[in-house]
Amino acid sequence: MAVQSKVDQESIDLMAHLMRRAGFGADRDELERRAAVGYEATVDELLNPQGQRADRQHFLRYHPGFRRPVTSPGMGGSAWLYDMMHTELPLEEKMVLFWHQIFATGQSKVDHWHELIAQIDMFREKGMGNYRDMLVALAQNPAMIYWLDNCDNHKSGVNENWGRELLELFSMGVGNYTETDVFECSRAFTGWTIGTVPPRNYYSRFDWDFEYQEEDHDHGEKTFLGQTGNFNGEDIIDIICQQPATAEFIARHLYNFFVADEPQVPAWSVTPPKDPKAIETLAKTFTKFNYDIRSVLRVLFLSDFFKDARFTKIKSPAEVVVGTLRLVGQDKLPPPGIGDLSKQTGYMGQELLNPPSVEGWHTGVEWINSGSLMKRINFVADMLGDISRPGVQRIVARLQAQGNLGPEELVDRCLELVGPIKAGAATHEQLVEHSAQGGELKWDTEKDVAASTARVGELLQLIASVKEFQYS
Amino acid sequence: MATNKKDPVLVVLQLSGGNDYLNTVVPYGDGLYQDARPVVGFTEDQVLPIDGGLGLNPAMGPLKGMYDQGNMAIIHGVGYPDSPRSHFRSMDIWHTCEPETLGTEGWLGLATRDLDPRKENIVTTVSFGPSLFRALVLPGVPVACVDDLESYGLLTGISGEKQREQILDRFSRMYAPEMGNDVVTEYLGQTGLEAMKGADILKVAPETYSSSIEYAETTIAQKLRGIAQVHLAGLGTRIFYCDHGSFDSHSNQAGMHATLWSDVSQAITDFFADLREHDAADNVIMLLFSEFGRRVRDNGSGTDHGAAGAAFVIGNAIKGGQYGEYPSRKSEDLQQGDLVPNMDFRGLYTTVLEDWLGLDAKPIVKGNFEAPRFT
Which of A256, B279, B332, B333 is deepest in the core (most CB within 10 A)? Predict the structure, then answer.
């Protein structure tokens, strides 16, 4: 039912904000349920969730090809899309997306979906835990080792790819280390490579395992960030974690992902943060709690700078697609077209599991160009306009329960039910004018119901195209 | 056909990832090169020899043909001082001509503004691919961003032509500029309107196109085919942009670099053949650049990030040959093991902007730089 008091409306709005950022949005039923539990309790539940992950076995039962998708395009992406659509642990899955956007690893080179999904699964296990453990797991992750050529990093021939990106993109950022540090860091990771496990089936690819080849490791002395010793990879990661630059780097990433759009990473060495105090708070928490991500997230979600940051971010393509799919509701069985669905984010400029480069994607307003905006609008309009979808039917049922509605009431209720979305004056005026062409929305007869349902579908398509929909 | 068909047109092909200069224009006769490249080096009998003791990568056969016909300029030693050796920072610098601070204005965004100051044609600049490169970004300046010409259109899922028209009419009102909008909302509004109008303009391109050229199925060939379609439709587009990669050959360089150049060379040759077939090649030049070159010494499998690189400019209007000097490979002349740039990329841009597009380059590249005059 419509929430009556102002206080309740505020807690719904705040909860919607939290769920858009810490998850992939929530429909009205879930927002009301969670608002009744309370904000802080919801934050704690998201951080220490009790629900179920998406059932991978259920997915596999209907898409057995995914067991070893070889190089079939779309299938690898489908499995993760299915996870995001069906998880009951939205923050856990959102953190998977967070790490994927930072530790961006791509099929274009790895050419092995199974290993990419194994990396995604690792992010799910460790994404809210300790950042140091995450870096070690990342350094030992076969897809990452192959992606950044650490399997070609030898005592006799140092390959700097992993060593450089670990410092530049995964921990400290440009400007906080020298070229010598890159080289010494790379030496410390010599011998960190992959072994292959022969497949059971002749048509499969080999699985990869992390393998430490001691004989190929450079055991000599290294000087890294001013410290000298016979360092191995884990020592390097320990030294990285001690750097104030690392705490600030992670804080800035979390702020950019959860709070408000920042300039892109390569600019961080020359552009100060938007909200230095917020970054300082997050960085201090990171250090104080010994690099525990969950502790930083709790401080972030309970902060005023987070609560006040509503509609200040442009949704990423993954947020657009997953948020829309969760809103319109799912078929019980994984749909046959899930491979096509999983390509949608790519059409919008974010091909999951296949970033344009190790830098990942340019986010924020850079998600938007004439082509990508078109794809976003078209996809959401197709979904929200499909009145056969269970989530759209729930929206219709809620409207019907409120009886006959005037044109403006109809617009306002619809904006509430797909968001709430705060429409600007021009948008609101056009929506109401459009709605007024159909007069009052009636549910009196069966004919009314059919006509009104179709009208709601059409209005939802128009709402899908408004500028305000692009904001999170 | 459009009246401005013969206006000069620039196509930029960005080689993303850091193309290995030394293995693209190979100083095969230099013992220092041979010593530094025990694994990925080329010998004299492998390269496609050009003048000056240099040879092109063996996979560049089709481009060698264009070079021999005098239609390709090789620009040596391109870069800028103090390369950060970061793909992303370096690409930003190339895109904005701002090596010190974070640039927000792309050099081709500025060029687009100067080519069409009254914004009369929203397809003056067209980018192919799902993302918009910063080189093209300038607040208020339209750039059409096309992934696939055939499916380019707004709210195409709405059934009923009249209904769709009504919805698009609402859309154009909702996206109209409004007082008091913040920058991002203003940008969204402008982009939405461009998407709507651009789709109507661009959809004619594949409809009116026919050609005897059969492009390869590679992504770069398909992008260049799309560019050819839009160019041949005579829509007044002056700047096209696309990229190909990844040239980040840290590992297994030999096969990967060969495939990249083979695909790129073939696609470019087909593109120009297509334009020639339609008598539409004379007013088109293509610029190829990469964010940096790669380290002189190989790492046993590939090459790590370096500094100076090579750029290429191709077209009938180009005075072919080599410009600038190949940087020294002597160890005392290297910086951190890398070739030192001796040709500022902003000089290269200056030639393109002034001599080709007829614009004032100085405010765009932010200074005076020695310019290789290849047109």
Answer: A256
